[in-house]
Amino acid sequence: MIDNDTTITAPQLHKFLTFNMADENYGIEVTNVREIIGLMRITRVPGMPDFMRGVINLRGRIIPVIDLRMRFKTGATLDTERTCIIIVQIHRGGNPIDVGLIVEEVADVIDLSSDSVDAVPEFGLSTDAAFLRGMGKHNDTIVILLDIDALLTSDELTAIQNVT
Amino acid sequence: MPPDRWHLDDVYRRIRLDWDGRLMTEEFDLVAELDMLAERLMLVDPSDADDMAALREQYAALLTYAESTDRPELVGSCAYSLDIVTRMPKGDGARESLSDLGTALVGLRDTALGTGLAPSRRIGQPGAVAESEFTPTKSAPLAGDDDLLSDFVARAGEYLDDADERLLTLEREPENRGALDAVFRAFHTIKGMAGFLALNAVEAVCHEAEGVLEVPRKEHVPMTREDISLIFGHIDTMRSLIGSETEEQSLDMTDAKSESEHVSTDHKTRATIRVSEDRLDLLLDTIGELVIAEASAGDTIRKASDRSDELDKRLSRLDKITRELQEMATSLRMVPVKATFNRLARLTRDVGTKSGKRVQCTLAGQDTELDKAVVDAIADPLMHLVRNAVDHGIESDPSVRERAGKPATATIRLHAKQIGSGIQIKLSDDGRGFDLQAIKAKAADMNIDLPEDPSEDDLLNVLFTPGFSTASRVTEVSGRGVGLDVVRRAVESLRGTIDIESEPGKGTSFTIQLPLTLAIIDGMIARVGDEQYVLPTLSIIRSVRPEPEDITNVLDIGETLRTNEGFIPIVRLGQVFGVENAEEDLTNGVAVIVSDGDRKAAVFVCQLLGQQQTVIKPLSDVISDAPGISGGAIMADGGVGLIVDIAGIVRLTLSEGVTQA
User: Fold this and answer.
1) Global pTM value
2) ipTM of model
3) A78 to chain B nearest CA, in Å?
4) Considering the domain A13-159, what is its CATH architecture?
5) What are the C-alpha distances in Å from B324 to residues B285, B290, B318, B611?
6) What is the mean pLDDT of chain A?
């Protein structure tokens, strides 16, 4: 009999959607992804932080869109033909919220087993490390895995409300 | 026999009857005690000190007994009755108190016997029925049926609302047979429904109410005030019973509630179907989508090169149907303000009775319709205003009123009417009005900025200052201003405005302007730089192209625009929202004169693109607090437009000041 509770469980497989941004590969777990849509008109909302590009109308619902590069302070995402919006569902205070992420290019969906994911190295006190879930190794490339729920932390939201 | 005596006799008779049939109850002592009390109540002379002392003693003994049992509901009722006895006024007020005691006694008896009013026994609990051996134990095969139950809740609610309204009529015209019969019918119908569902407590209360109504009906005598109060009490008891009952019985209470609160139409004259609010909202959403899809399809087709007359004709037909569909869908959410107004009339009566003032409430325009969501949301602020008006606005002494040439009975007037795409609700009283001097003094105490020689409007506006309300001085001296900031906030959150007018000695009136619906907004689309914003048409007075000689920059503090109605501060929308490429030259753009109810501002935009009805959508939680933005709207091209929060932007600019670029 196999005891599931022991540490010797088989490595779990997770599917990740990967995309390229500033020459790095990033991945988010596909269970968070609701759909991928092309770039559409984004309405800027005054008083929001830079990384909050604005809002879009997704089939009658208004959804905020975040520029991931701005979020990671690596410059603004360029709007090209390949630029798209990944609609993800994040959880904040127990409520699911749909949020769009602008990325320059969606790459692939890959399988990563939990034993091929390393912990995030220490970056000092950088808050950005909070949205990192781990470093995945896929073939010969490194995929930076993101923790979607941490993208809009309560700290960040307080910051949003204080911008006037 | 004087009416109060008659009433007490009736109470006595009913207690007696129940008592005779229930000799074997475990609460024997208590019931006997109540029986004696009922007898004493009939004979007591409120002006006789000895009589009253004896009555007080008897109630005190009752309370002591109640405290020896572990039944908190008994203790509560006894303490309440004792309180009435202790505070019983001499003279006229005593009749009312005696009548209250009678009502309380009936309630106490029911509690003692466990026949229903007691919280410990709610119908629908299997054990509850068995507890009282004397209530015929009905099988309750239907009691668990949620659909039937929620239907009952809804219908009983409507009947009770109706009864409430008719009773108010009866109070004014005690001889009104039609109203009397209608009240009776309401109880009778509810009794029937309750019986069917085996809701024994509701049935019992109905039965009691019918008993009270029986005599004036059969003997053609007018209803007494006491009886009317008694019936009002029955209505309240029923409301709370029905509320608690469904909580016990229906696991899916939220569902039942939303259905019961749903579109209220006259069940007697029209056949109606109840639809859950969720499904209705979904329908509205989908129709909103259809409108947008239709518009963009039409756009594409009209731009196409190979368009034909045939296609154009069909397209315009589609366009027309879509628009009709949208209008119909919107009207589905419309309900008359009647129910809310009737509740307010009832509240006026209750607060008046409690504070010993003679107040009547007159209603006008009850059939004015607006969105159910707006009706629901405005009820609380209106109640607050009514309570304030009766409590503080109306003079306590009728002779003061008469000396001022006003009728002894004060009047609260509620008037609703539709104005354009909005509705106006006016609530006025003929009380003493605000004491402007007291407001001025208090404002000085609180360091509230006021002009050198403040106008009446300036002073009345101070009442809306947060925190001003709690000032005891104003409450005592001028009587009003409790929580008016809260009322204003509530009105503004509905995209409405509130205005106040007051004349010392003559009265006060509040004018509330509200949009008809929250789902659709009539908006003016304004271009600012490359961005578009929606200005609610309801707040717009007019728009002007500023002439150079009308623009003044006052000491670099702020720009003002000279208009017929004086100098109006200019709010540069582009600057407030940080829009790039916004027009800098005021004479090249448009100034939209808006009002947030009391303050005006000239909102400067680059261009007005036209008026449009847009479907309002909530902004995502993540950005719901964007300053100066009240929501989002789906525009005809499918994009998102942001709706400007006029009151917010005026406040943001004028109070905190925007530094000039």
Assistant:
1) 0.52
2) 0.81
3) 19
4) Beta Barrel (2.40)
5) 15, 12, 10, 18
6) 79
